Amino acid sequence: MDVGPFCLVPSVLLLVVPFWLILSYIETFRSRSKLIRKHECHPPLAYPQRGPLGLSEIRESTKAFHARTFLEWTCSQYKLHGNTFASSYLRQTIIHTIEPKNIKAVLGTNFHHYGIGWRKKYAFKPLFGNSLFQLDGRAWDRSRAALKAAFNHARVTEFAATEEEVDPFLDKLRTESTTQPLLDLAPEGYQDHDGAEEGFLEAMKRAGAGCEKRWQLGLFSLLVPQESFHSDVARVHRYMEKRVDDVLASASDTNGSKRLDFLACLAQHTTDWNQLRDEACVLFIAAADTLASLLINIIFLVGKYPSVWARLRMEIEPLGGQSPSPKDLKQLKYHGYCVREALRLLPVLPNNSREAS
Ligand code: HEM
């Protein structure tokens, strides 16, 4: 029977793919052995795995996540297994570390030897596209340079925009003794008051959580229905697209006195509509939740330590109630220490990941 060329393709693939897999395994093994010899590395302690896929660890971490004890659970793992240990997660080997030297190597000295990793890129692609958070290597260098220029332009030292959101919240905290102000923290500017897109904040929260879930499951997420995740992403994109359209429409406005926000500054470096939309999504996630969480953590900690509060107040007394200038801020050393201590005690982003490339 003549089966034609259609049978030939799978046969060739069947021969070539295992051959390619074996070759790349040998190559990885050789280069890893070379590195291990060169740096005299010792194998990390192995997490006591129960079951082949690391399901016990997934179960425990998910339980801790829902019980809001994830940070404590993570710290307890390091107390149990040491500063660096390895585990296997859905067949992928993960090395967990809080060893300062290792972190310095991954995020600093050997930065270009580590990438985002396919699992994270795949998980966040629908929401973040090809924005900065999704890039590594030379593409990251290029994109980072453009963003840095935009940051410099955006006069990030101007606090007016942040104060507009935070001051009413602090006023409420001062005058009301209930927990309601905490519930009102969602910044006014991000609420749906302009009718741009109904339910944007909720959709953003669900879309972010959906990406995390896809990250956890890796390719297994293909087996899980994701219609609602994709419709949340589409809703978020519609909101951001409206902002990009506004920014591009006013790009020709050369009124020098107008304060440019970050997106407007970025639009001076690129007019790629998709890129602007993706970067806007990233910046929303990177800036809004982190800053809000840090502020809440500081308020919580200062409430616990009245002597710290008294010292903070003493330090700003010379300003006589005026907002500090960027130059004043540099002099407010004790304020800076408190921000760092709050980040250390209650880290806003307690973990991060990279894949050896
Ligand atoms: C308490 C506040 C913040 C914390 C703790 C924080 C933390 C972090 C961390 C850990 C990363 C590295 C992520 C990674 O490499 O995987 C990061 C990246 C980033 N953050 Fe923040 N962030 C904060 C506030 C902000 C704000 C206010 C903005 C924007 C106005 C911002 C914009 C960015 C951007 C653009 C990146 C990507 C930078 C890059 O890849 O080089 N962040 N942030």
TrEMBL record:
Classification via Pfam families: p450
Positions of transmembrane segments: 6-26, 280-302
Protein name: Cytochrome P450
Listed Gene3D superfamilies: Cytochrome P450 (1.10.630.10)
Family as reported in the entry's similarity comment: Belongs to the cytochrome P450 family.
Signal peptide: none
InterPro entries recorded: Cyt_P450, Cyt_P450_E_CYP52_fungi, Cyt_P450_sf
Required cofactor names: heme
Alphabetized SUPFAM superfamilies for the sequence: Cytochrome P450 (SSF48264)
One Gene Ontology term of the molecular function aspect: iron ion binding
